[in-house]
Amino acid sequence: MTPTARRSSLRSPWLATSGTLLDVQDPVPISDALDSMMKSLRGTDRIQIGGVFGRWEDAVGPDVARHVKPVRLDQGVLTVEAADAAWATQVKFLTAEITDRLATVAGVDIERVEVRVARPGSRRETP
Fold it and tell me: In terms of domains, do 98 and 112 share one?
């Protein structure tokens, strides 16, 4: 087998974010590679994650952001951690508004919000 034929037989195709097959040796922007990897692992791309975590305070306001933090975004399910049970209850009532605001502010569609209460001493509140 010639070196060229051998190299060609060793290549495995990868699916680009555009849906086209790429050869392993084709150059791909790192952002596309990261998006593809994150979607294959979690179904959520870096833009969605950055939108939720980076624009959280803009979406929920400083008062809520001081007591409630996003901790995970996985396939449209946002998990947030509340400082205490009272804030967890408040977030449950605000879920529709929070998902609407995240769609408007960050361009992220959230299907469901799961709320958990932080263990005592596990998180610092910002003043």
Answer: yes
